Amino acid sequence: MGTQKITLAKGLNMGLRKAMEDDPKVLLMGEDVGKLGGVFRITDGLQKDFGEDRVIDSPLAESGIVGTAIGMALRGYRPVVEIQFDGFVYPAYDQIVCQVAKMHYRSKGRYKIPMVIRIPFGGGIGAVEHHSESPEAQFAHTPGLKVVACSNPIDGYWMIQQAIASDDPVIFLEPKRQYHADKAELDETATPEPLFSSRVVRQGSDVTVLAYGPTVKTALSAAEAAAGEGKSLEVIDLRTLSPLDMAPVLESVRRTGRAVITHEAHVNLGMGSEVAARITEECFYSLEAPVLRVGGFDTPYPASRIEEDYLPDLDRVLDAVDRSLEF
Amino acid sequence: MPVTTAGFGPDLVEVFGPSQRDGGPDLIQLLTPEGERVHHPELDLDFSAEQLRGFYRDMVLTRRIDTEATALQRHGELGIWAQLLGQEAAQIGAGRALKKQDFVFPTYREHGVAYCKGVDPLNLLGLFRGVDHGAWDPNENNFGLYTIVIGAQALHATGYAMGIQRDGDVGTGDPDRDAAVIAHFGDGASSQGDVNEAFIFAASYNAPVVFFCQNNQWAISEPIERQSRIPLYQRALGFGFPGVRVDGNDVLATYAVTQAALQRAREGQGPTFVEAYTYRMGAHTTTDDPTRYRLNDDVEHWKLKDPIARLEVYLRRNGLVDDAFVDELKQEADELGHHLREGCKALPDPKPMDMFDHVYAEETEELRVQREGFASYLETFEGGHH
Predict the structure, then answer these.
(1) Which residue, A152, A186, A220, sits at the end of a domain?
(2) Which chain B residues are closer than 8 Å to A79 by Cβ?
(3) B159–A73: do the CB atoms touch at under 8 Å?
(4) Are residues A94 and A175 both part of a single domain?
(5) Contact B194 A67 (CB under 8 A)
(6) ipTM (interface pTM)
(7) Where's the Dehydrogenase E1 component domain (chain B) (predicted)?
(8) pLDDT per residue as tens digits for the range A83-129
(9) Which of B22, B219, B237, B271 has a Cα-to-Cα distance from B130 of 20 to 30 A?
(10) Predicted TM-score (pTM) of this structure
């Protein structure tokens, strides 16, 4: 098996295929995941190869998709459901936070819900309302759920398989604007990093920049631009939002003394708030500046003609870096 | 000229008025409130004397579970209790129609079905006492944990049924293998999106599931008229599967109808909606006061339809039970009551540290740190608190 260059969409598709080959109990379910291959084509070709009983085109009902998947998990299956767009997850919110998240606890471990809820998240694709949301904090705030976000094709391939193998329910966030953007070299024989771990993706010494999902690329671009001005940014891809893997973050911030976190979600009570609090608790004496957050504004996601102004971009990240360095 | 919609919908008085208090013309009944056996062309089962006495015993014991638990709540031993008084026939009829391999997805009121499935009723009390969220093992008796969010379990039942389909445990002809699922809920739940979505999924995939609605007329204080403009069982047709209305105070009819519906499911013929037309004689739970929202006249009317009394009349009239049987049963009920009273008080309180258990199958480092931190904190108190 050689290496090949793949997109995130392809990585996820290959990862799902591998998981289905490895375990006959893995099922895919969602709106349009069968013949169409999903609106983003992530499940392309899987129904053809695994049949309608394993790649299930569902009625147009999100609560129904998640709720019936719970029942299938209780019967011993490992359902992977696709929520077509982030803003469509809310009809299933009760099933996710009241049922999926709590069943293991409620049953003292007798029920296992090894279920993955895939959600294409974030903006930047010029979509209409409800198609560009970042609901991660709502799920990370729910005990019993685990929440991860992939940012690149290689992670997409490995993380989806690891999420499916996990005995806990996983909210799996996929940055939709990266689906077909960049290609990377996949080595299927490599050993992946653990699912619930963050990773330093660029080393630096002046400021630690934290990101996940779509903003990892933004952070890396900012680091590249900053390097031209003689500033050295360390970029960490958080990858897992619940649990948070803070060890590499704390190690980095103790070294740099400065941290900026960026995400597309609203700043108010977003992941950045939690990360900033934890850094403050753990690195208080190492900090040279307060932890700064660069995120979406506390507005509903705006009309797409102005979404570029809403989304944190390279300049806003660099501005925060400069403010941090000025303290 | 004003537009009129007359003639386009059912007349509410016709559907819900006094003429329908007996369930309407489509009500399936095998035993009248007066204890007379009536016959039905398709569901005329032969019940053995033993079976009939069994139904009677089950209903008496189920009522005892309910009255003991209600008393325990009044004594402050339970925080709350969801009463089933008046719904014994609906639950025992449905519960006894189940086979070992059938799986139950209950609400929080299915004490009689739990009893039929072999769950120790003492285990039901823990949830209401606040010592756990349900202490029984769902996979031991194929009886799921109580679900409090209204109607959420209808989807779990449907998904589980889809799992049974995928396992090939439907329509094999092997009576010990073919399995079905039953989802219990009330008339209020019929308004929930999840229940309607469950109907759609079950119909679309032909899932082996029986939707068993105990229409007890009241969703706390909201009457059935606030949930539906048509008799509930008629909704099923709109989803593409059969709906039947059975006298929920008639254990024979409830048993016969549920058994037929479960058998359809096991054979691979898909879902059925069973509306057990009954009445909640008590409150929704021990916290509400039904005298605020309903007429005493209604309650008195339904008292005459008592499910236990009518079967007792039938049994006595036909010489199927005697005083000795009834005395023995009373003694059995007393023993059950004692078991619940003493057992409830003896249920151990959970330890504070128990709250950290089973949040995840694979515990997170974050939670481990919180657990240890709280343990250390508790250690600072004299004698320890955990």
Answers:
(1) A186
(2) 159
(3) yes
(4) yes
(5) yes
(6) 0.96
(7) 57-335
(8) 999 999 999 999 999 999 999 999 999 999 999 999 999 999 999 99
(9) B219
(10) 0.96
